[in-house]
Specification:
Length: about 290
Amino acid sequence: MPTDTMTATLALPAAAAPPRRRSGLAWLTPSLALLALFFVLPVLSLLLRSITEPEFGLQHYAELVGSWTYVKVLYNTLLVASVVTVVTVVLGFPVAWLMAIMPSRWSRFLMGCLLLSMWTNLLVRTYAWMVLLQRTGFINQTLMKWGVIDEPLALVNNLTGVTIGMTYIMLPFLVLPLHATIKALDPAILRAAATCGASRWQAFWLVLWPLALPGVASGALMVFVMSLGYFVTPALLGGASHMMLAELIAQLVQSLLNWGLAGAASLVLLVITLGLYALQLKLFPAKGGQHAA
């Protein structure tokens, strides 16, 4: 056999071998590296400083628990997040339900309005609410003109202003997942309930609400967790009397340079967030390949 033919025969298995496929993990490597470099490492560094500055120990956590000022800030944070979540669910459920049953053209229009509010700059939306809610703003002037009130209401620098502003901002984050859940439900289920004699309230409470509960839980968790860490809107609409934990952390880092106490407060937020996420996974486990219905 000629030498060239033998060489080609020996080289054939290597040439015919299929190209090696890149695993899915390889494609995720850049994203994972960025996540580790710009999120995980800074967070771990901040948490490490909470137990090493100025000396090793848990003195910052003891200060957070023992100081009434910090306990009140944590209480304000949980209170605002809870109120905003409840109000958002009450207002968002009818919107999501309406978007699911109305003609597609109007549903897309309403969806566009929600998305447009999300795309508007956060500072612009917050300052707009400051103008509307102040004592000489449009809302107070309109209520006084209609004779509903005699004196302007205090709608800013308190819990009311924070709740109004944050509910408006958080509403799309509840409506979008809830709309997807309700849209996936079979309308025949409600018709069957009505055929069996259920009233509208019974059809809602005994049929629609349990089926939509996973979407409500997902949206409510997202709203609550985002409210825990919100900074701009509570600072502008709530004033100093309703300081939240994110604002406290910013002051500790920027003004007081107390990185240790800021790290301890950050760990408190992180533990609350992970605890709520674990609770949701416990109550509403993921159903692989099945929708919520």
